[in-house]
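Good morning,

Attaching, inline, the backbone tokens for the sequence recovery test we're adding to the shared suite. The designed sequence is right after.
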């Protein structure tokens, strides 16, 4: 009887452990982002940093922020079905933690393809010809400057390049006040 009970407990524990591993693979974790930020900080070459930033922004676009629950209060049956269909069609891979990328000219632009796909044009010109410096901010420093959206860190890219400024204005992108 003890062997039987032990076997069941062992199997149950294994299943729980396997399920947790499967779920955690679908999340962009804080640790993964901290490692990425540490590697970016170690990089001495601006062009290398900017290439890594471009790739990270594009890669992060596949991850979405966790969504709050949907309220069906006051909706008709048809509206509920439409809302369910929309929710089912959205990507399921979520990010527990995302790095905030900020482009700092006269105004600050938060570069996030999930929120605004127009940044694809800007990402292509994030190179040493257009960007003067890239700085990693972590922990309290990042959250003090940019709030909760930077709780996993931030990367600020500074420039005074007129061509990049013109591209941003042409795209009519939303800015964040300093």
């Amino acid at each position: 009887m003890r062997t039987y009970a032990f076997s069941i407990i062992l199997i149950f524990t294994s299943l729980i452990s396997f399920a947790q591993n499967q779920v955690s693979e679908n999340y962009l974790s804080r640790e993964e982002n901290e490692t990425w930020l540490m590697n970016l900080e170690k990089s001495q070459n601006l062009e290398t940093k900017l290439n890594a930033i471009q790739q990270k922004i594009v890669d992060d676009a596949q991850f979405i922020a966790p969504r709050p629950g949907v309220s069906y209060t006051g909706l008709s049956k048809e509206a509920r079905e439409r809302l369910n269909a929309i929710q089912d069609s959205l990507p399921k891979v979520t990010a527990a933690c995302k790095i905030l990328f900020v482009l700092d000219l006269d105004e600050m632009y938060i570069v996030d393809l999930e929120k605004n796909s127009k940044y694809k044009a800007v990402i292509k010109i994030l190179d040493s010809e257009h960007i003067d410096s890239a700085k990693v901010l972590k922990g309290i420093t990042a959250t003090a400057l940019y709030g909760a959206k930077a709780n996993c860190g931030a990367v600020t890219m500074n420039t005074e390049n007129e061509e990049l400024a013109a591209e941003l204005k042409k795209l009519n992108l939303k800015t964040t006040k300093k």
